[in-house]
Amino acid sequence: MRITLLLLSFCLLAPLAAAQDDDPSAAMMAAMQANMTPDENHEFLQAFAGDWTYTSTVWMTPDAPPMESDGTATIEMTLGGRFLMGTHTGTMMGMPFEGRATTGYDKASGKYLATWIDTMGTAITMYEGYVEDGKLILETDSPDPITGAMDHHRMVQWMDGEDAQVMEYYVTTEGAEEALMMRMNYTRTGE
Predict the structure, then answer these.
(1) Structural class in CATH, domain 40-188
(2) pLDDT tens, 9-61?
(3) What's the pLDDT score for residue 191?
(4) CA–CA gap between residue 93 and residue 71 (Å, rounded)
(5) CA–CA separation, 163 vs 188, rounded Å?
(6) Is-contact 140 128, C-beta < 8 A?
(7) Domain residue extents for the chain
């Protein structure tokens, strides 16, 4: 009798289990779960998290003398290790400055994505990029606020050991070669 019940149970449950394997909602849930789970690309961003002091050097044109300023940055992983969010506070061109960044890795597109806002303008700048040789490279095209022409912007950021990082910002204006516009050197503070 037990064997008959076991065989009957198997015959009734086997099609249900097969139906679950063919259930499109189960496949969708598995794909969503895989997409929402942080991976090694998010771990790469973790190295940039921390409390930092920084010095920035800005060249308004390639042949102009550099302007230097300094500040602090608090950068942290948020939303379960999915996004890197940072606030920069200091001075820029002799004025108080604050900027905020969000950087993440979009598993669906296979790209790093970032946004930047600051007190030097009213734009929300959106970047996309990749990692090459341990460096995060983010790029965008945006209008020059003076001429209105579209400029190409390229940001390259990397860790220089465990307690230092460097960010270089390059701009290509219409009819000109790419030029280094800003370099920021960060030093980790605290623990």
Answers:
(1) mainly beta
(2) 444 445 544 445 567 888 888 888 888 899 999 999 999 999 999 999 999 88
(3) 58
(4) 12
(5) 5
(6) yes
(7) 2-36, 40-188
Task: Identify which has the larger pLDDT, 43 or 93.
Answer: 43
**Nearest-angstrom CA–CA distance, 40 and 45:** 9
For residues 98 and 91, what is the distance between their CA atoms, to the nearest angstrom? Answer: 8
Spatial CA neighbour of 182 closest among 150, 159, 157, 146: 157
Does the structure show a pLDDT above 90 at 111?
yes
- CA–CA separation, 146 and 66 (whole Å): 20
Reported residue count of the chain is 191
